Amino acid sequence: MIERLKESHGGVIGFRVIGQVTADEVTAFEEQIRFLIAERRNRPIGIVADISQMDGVDWKARWAEMRFLQKYTNHIARIAVIGADTWETVAGMALTGMALLQGETLYFHPSESLQAWHWARTSKHATDAPAPRQIYAGTGIWKNYTPEFDI
């Protein structure tokens, strides 16, 4: 099951994945993301994906996700992934993000959900950026990033 999170507003949409994800669920949720992109008149959006309760993804769902990301890559600035259980899950999402998105994908521990939302609300597409700040991305590594404007 994929459910939209109540914290979704402005240019950031969040969702929680519970259990096994099917291609039909991915396709149904993509409509909400398409609507947000259209509503924002094609300005970049941020996505927060809480996968801490996900049990897996079938191949058809993964393929539907990749097709969607490829089609809308120019409209997605950042994807914050919360709570993957295994390195394989994180690596799979990161590879999808790197291969199909021009935006950034970053992993956050479930206890860092506020930081994930904050990071997803910032984008690399502006010219008047404040100085870089350090964030902890749940991986044991501090990363520099420069929030450039709120989405």
Short recap of the structure:
This protein is an alpha/beta fold and 151 residues long.
List keywords for this structure.
7 strands, two-stranded antiparallel sheet, Transcription Regulator spoIIAA, alpha/beta, 5-stranded mixed beta sheet
Tell me about the biggest sheet?
A: 5 strands, mixed
Number of strands: 7
CATH architecture: 2-Layer Sandwich
Radius of gyration: 14 Å
Mean pLDDT: 75
Number of helices: 4
Q: Distance N terminus to C terminus?
A: 27 Å
What letter string, H or E per element, gives the SSE order?
EEHEHEHEHEE
What helical percentage do the residues reach? 25-40%
Low-confidence stretches: 125-150
Would you tell me which CATH topology applies? Transcription Regulator spoIIAA
Q: What is the chains' assembly state?
A: single chain
CATH H level: which superfamily?
Answer: STAS domain
Order of strands side by side in the largest beta sheet? 1-2-3-4-5
CATH class: Alpha Beta
How many domains make up the 3D coordinates? 1
> How does the helix and strand content classify structurally?
alpha/beta
Query: What percentage of amino acids are in beta strands?
Result: 25-35%
- Shape label: globular
